[in-house]
Structures
1.
Amino acid sequence: MSAEEKSALASELVCGALSVPINNRLSNFERLSTQYLPADMRDEIENSQAIRQEVLGISQMLLIQGLPSRKSLINQITLKNIHLVSGIPQIPVIFKLIENEESPFKISQEGPKAMAEATKLNSKLKIYEPFILKRLAVRILQKCKNFYTNLKFATIEKHLSFYGSWNKIEVLLYECNREGLVKTVLDHGNKAITFDQEVQIAENLVKFGRKLRTTFQKISEKKNLGQERNRIFMKVKEKLDEETNKVQQLKQDMMKNKEEITLDLQQEMERLSAIREKEQADKLKEFQLQKIKDE
C-alpha cells in the first residue's frame, strides 16, 4: 500500500470517528468489568489497553455484540497518532478543533474552511462533511456557554453561518437540549438565548470537586505524616465540605426552577413541531399544484 493510500484511509478513519454523535456512550462490552467501580476510576481503567483486551475477550466468549464508543475511537486515534495525516494537513486541524479547542470563535473561523479544503484533497471525505459540520456547530454552542450568559440570535447565526438557516440552527438547539449536550432557553421576544446557569455552575463545582479530590489523593500518597500534611488535609476537607453544601443548596434551587424550564422546553417542542407541520403542508400543497399543472 502506497503512502498516499495510507493517508487517504487514515483521513477517512478520523473523519468517520469524528462523525459519531458526541453523546455516543460506551458500548455494553466495554462496561463489563468497570460498571461497579467509582465514576472517577472508570476512565483510567477503560483506557488501559490490557484491561480492554481482557474485557473484549470476555465479551467474545459470552457472544456479546457491541460497537466501540466514540470516546474509545478517539482515544485509540490519539494514542496511535492516526489523526496526524501527512498528506492532508487539514485533518489534524479538524481533529484538534472538535476535540481540544476551547474558543468557539476559532472553531467557527477555521473548522468549515479546513473541512472544505480536506474534501478537495480527498473527495471521499465529502460524505462525512455534513456530520463534521454538525459536530463543529455543537462544539461552538458548548464552548459559547463559557463566554456568554445571553446570546443574540444574530450572533449565533454569525458563528454558525456555515451550518445553515436559522430554522436548522433552532432544530440543532432543540436536539442539544434533548440530548443534554448544552442547556439553553430561547427568548423569541428579545431574540436571544440564555445558557442554563444552574447547569453550568453544577458542572464547574463537579470539576472543582474532582480537582480537590485529586489534590487530596496526591497529598495522602506522601510519606511525610507530619503536622503540615494534617493541616493541608483539614483545609482540603473543609473545602470539600463547603463545596458539598453549595452543591446541595444548588440542587434545591435547581429543583425549584425545573418546572419552569420543562415548560419552556415543552413550548419550544410544540412550536418546532408546528413549524415542521407547516413546512410539510406547504410542500404537499406545492406538490399538488405542480401535479395539477402537469396534468
Note: Residues 288 and 294 are 10 Å apart (CA to CA).
2.
Amino acid sequence: MSEEKYYTPIIDEFRVWFVYEVKRNEIWTRTYINRKNPDISRIQAKIEDKKIRVKFLDIDDIENLIVTKIDPDGCFYFEDNDKNELCMSVSGRAIKIVDVEMNETRFSGQIKNRSELKVLLNQIHVKCI
C-alpha cells in the first residue's frame, strides 16, 4: 500500500455512498454522500479550498469490507456470492483478484479508495460486510 494516506479527490469521484472527509474548524470528519442529488457546487468549492480529502485504500479497508484470511504472502482470500474462493493481491494501488479454482483473473487494475473497492466487489458479486 502507499505511504501517502490521503489525496484530494476530483468531483467525478463523488456518487451515492462515496466516503470522504471534510475539514470543519480544523478537524477532519468522516462523511459520505447519502442522497442522489448532492450539492456539487458546494463540494467543488470545498475541494478547491482543500477542505475535502479521501483516504487511500489500506489493509484495514480491505479487511473491513470482506471476510478474509490472509496467507503469509499477503494474499487476501474470500468468497463471492456463489462460494467461489477468490484471492486478492495488492501491490501499491494495483489490485489483482483471481478465482483460485479456475485460475481466472476477475480484476486487475488500480483502486484508490474504499468506495471504489466496494463498487468493484459488488460488480464481481462479492457481498461486503
Note: The first helix runs from residue 40 to 48.
3.
Amino acid sequence: MVGKKKGRFNKIDRRAVKGRNFFKSRTFIVLMVFLAAIVFVVGIQFGYTEEGISNVGTDPVLLTPENLPAYLSSNSIIKEMPSSAKLTIYFGDRVYSLKDEEIILSEIPDPEIIISIPENYLNHEWTSFCSLAKTASSNGDLQVNLIASKTKLALKYRNLIKYRDCL
C-alpha cells in the first residue's frame, strides 16, 4: 500500500461493491441514470405516435364536467400510469386528480404533475384526450408543471413515453 493513493471514490465504491450498499453507491446511481437516459433516447428515436393509442379512431365524445372523470378513467394514458401516480388536472376552476388509480373530484396533497387546461375546452367533442391536449398545447393554453424532479418522473413514468406526441 505504500506509494499508492486511494481516492475517495475508489474507497466508497469498493466498499459498496463488497457489501449490500452497492444499490446506494454512486456507481449504481450513475449507472441507473445513464441507463434511463439511453431508454429515453431510444424511446424518442423509435417511439410511437398518436395513431393506434389513446382512444384514437373512436367516435368523438362530448366532454362535459360531468362525464370527464369517467372518460379519464377509461383513457389509455391514465390506465398505463403507475399505481402510485399523483396527478392533478385543472379545467378552469374544476379539479380532477388521479390518486390510487382512481379519478377524484378534489385536489390531492403533493401532486407530482399539475396540468392546467382552460375550461373552454370542455363541452366540445374530442376523439381522444390526446387530441384535446395537442390542441390546447398548439394554442398555448396547456400548462404542465412538474413538481417532482425530472429524473424521478422519467423513471416512474417511462412507459408513457409513447404518448409524448400528445404534448
Note: The chain has two domains: 1-46, 49-166.
4.
Amino acid sequence: MKGRRKKEEGRSGATAPFVAGAAAPACPLPSSFFLLPSFRVRAWNRDADYPLFCEWWAAHGSLAPACARLPDCGLVVEAGGAPALAAWLYQDNSCGVGWLAWFVGKPRCRDAARALPVLLGAADEVMRSQGRHTLLALTGKRGLGRALARHGYSREHTETQYWRILQW
C-alpha cells in the first residue's frame, strides 16, 4: 500500500496535478519561506502596500496598474525587513498556468535585483503547491527579460513574454 500511495502522489511527493475549476487558496506561501538568509517573502497587503508600489512605479517612469487589476497573490520580497521587490501572480482557473507580472523594485536599491531569485522561487512554490505546471513571466523590460532567461525562462514573444515549465 505504501508504494502505491507514493506512486499516486507523483515524484517527490508532489501534490496532485492541477484540476480545472478546483478551488485553491489565492497565495499559499509557506509561512517560513526563505531562500537567502537576508530575504523574506510575504503576500502583499493591498491597502498598505499599493501606495508604496505606486511610488516605485512612478520613480521608474511607469504607470501603476489599477489596484483592482492586481490579483490577491502579490509576492513581496523584503530585504532587512523592508520591501525590495514585488510581482503579482495571476492563476488561470481552467488549466495549470500562471502569469507573473507587474514586477517592481524599490528604486536605487541593490537588494531589488538580488531578490529576483527569491521572488521566482516563491512563485514556483505557490504554483507547485496547487499542482500547476507552467509559469509565464510578462515584462517589457529587456534587463528583466535577460535576468529571467538566466533563471531558466525561455523567451517566446519578441517583446514581453518569457515562460518556463516547472520541474517536479
Note: Residues 1-16 have pLDDT under 50 and may be disordered.
